[in-house]
Amino acid sequence: MSDSISAPAAGAAPVSPGAPAADAPDPRRWWGLVVIALAQLMVVLDATIVNIALPSAQTALGMSDANRQWVITAYTLAFGGLLLLGGRVADLVGRKRTFIIGLIGFALASALGGAAQSPGMLFGARALQGVFGAILAPSALSLMTTTFTDPRERGKAFGIYGALAGAGGAVGLLLGGILTSYLNWRWCLYVNIPIAIVAVVGAVILLHDRAGHKDIKLDVPGVILGCGGLVAIVYGFSEAEPRGWGDSMVVSLLIGGAVLLVAFVFWQSRAKSPLLPLRILKDRNRAGCFLTMGLATIGMFGLFLFMTYYLQGILGYSPVRTGLAFLPMSVAIIIGSTQISARLLPKVPARALMVPGMVLAAGGLLILTQLDVDSSYVSHVLPAELILGLGMGLTFMPVFSTATSGVRPQDAGVTSAMVNTSQQVGGSLGTALLNTIATSATGSYIASHLTDPSKKDQVVAAGIVHGYTHAIWYAVGAMLLAGVCAFFLVDAKPQAARH
């Protein structure tokens, strides 16, 4: 019997009078799920909501084109690099406590960013958001893991969580467009404050967790090696886009990050209280879920990245209309997660959902490889979104549930952090790799087709779309590779049978 099931009290242990008995499920756990979902939505929204506001923020604060990327990079560096530390701190200090600290810190950092009067102030606030997001995200997922252990309840809960993880980015684009168009760019940051206040109040009242595991010691060398390696890798990917993959700084960052991560794994095999216990990675189901998540995120970022540019730059959509155009995909993700995966996961093996999900997602992206300058939203983009969204909904929910199923309570935080880390690294790699491929293909197309200067605008537009479709083929490959990983590595039985 798995550790998480043999110790169901991990997510509902009494910390105050009136808390549920240790052997009984928390009667308010579904309201607690609402609180956790709010926090997760806030973190996911912030990955895309600022993208829409960036042009307005650049004008208002006088940012240079070279520096504006730091609004995004500062967040992704801190968030992706510190997730493992955040997950271990949650195990050490207690998940509820770090959850509340993360919420408060994220809200304060958002307020600082919204009030920014200079580029440096905004960059610093975004980095702080990333730091507290790295504390908040693994705490939220590990609270889910230790609160919902019954297979059917777990399916429903993780269906909702997976839907938010997949659909939150598209919702962020819509919300960012609305706030930027009808208020101003600062509200794309201020919007986190009321969400965080509601979540903090709800967490204090509704969430229960042990104070922490005193037998865990913080692995300082592991923090330096692991977090340093992740920061270098994420930074290298982010710099590959503007500098090129052959740039000496990019190469140094990627090689240095890889060396640090190899040293990190070596140290973890010898540390008395490792930051990332290797038993987590040795479990083939968890390793398969981490790989599937990373590869799927590469493909999914291909759609977000290129469709945002295509809808606004080629079809001439406004930011609000662009956000609305992504809503069908959000609906498809929610249906796939809550109405299909959540109902079937207790009865079928996880890969029976993940593999078809990745094939569907690849099929959705395949439609986008046929785009041209005159393609319409209804004929090309909409069907691609619906198919891709359904596929991601089928995949995300079983990934989150299977990766965190059966984990020891004292490892719940760092395991949750690994799921988030694979998602973050996949997103960073996808953005850098696909954008570089698209830019190169666009340049080659324009150079070979621009024979008549009077047709420059048409050739440039066609070249841009050609770059997008060329790069999306690689995203299709990433999705199919994710399906292969799920098929060969994830062999977990239906959750009801394991329970």
From TrEMBL:
Domain of life of the organism encoding this protein: Bacteria
A GO BP entry: response to antibiotic
PROSITE patterns, per the entry: MFS, SUGAR_TRANSPORT_1
TM helices/strands, residue ranges: 30-50, 70-87, 99-116, 128-148, 160-183, 189-208, 220-237, 249-267, 288-311, 323-345, 352-371, 377-400, 432-451, 471-490
Subcellular location as annotated: Cell membrane
Residue ranges constituting the Major facilitator superfamily (MFS) profile domain according to the UniProt record: 32-495
GO cellular component terms, A-Z: plasma membrane
Record-linked NCBIfam families: efflux_EmrB
Keywords: Antibiotic resistance, Cell membrane, Membrane, Transmembrane, Transmembrane helix, Transport
Membrane topology: Multi-pass membrane protein
Principal location class: membrane
Region named Disordered: 1-22
A GO molecular-function annotation: transmembrane transporter activity
Matches recorded under InterPro entries: EmrB-like (IPR004638), MFS (IPR011701), MFS_dom (IPR020846), MFS_trans_sf (IPR036259), Sugar_transporter_CS (IPR005829)
Protein name as catalogued: MFS transporter
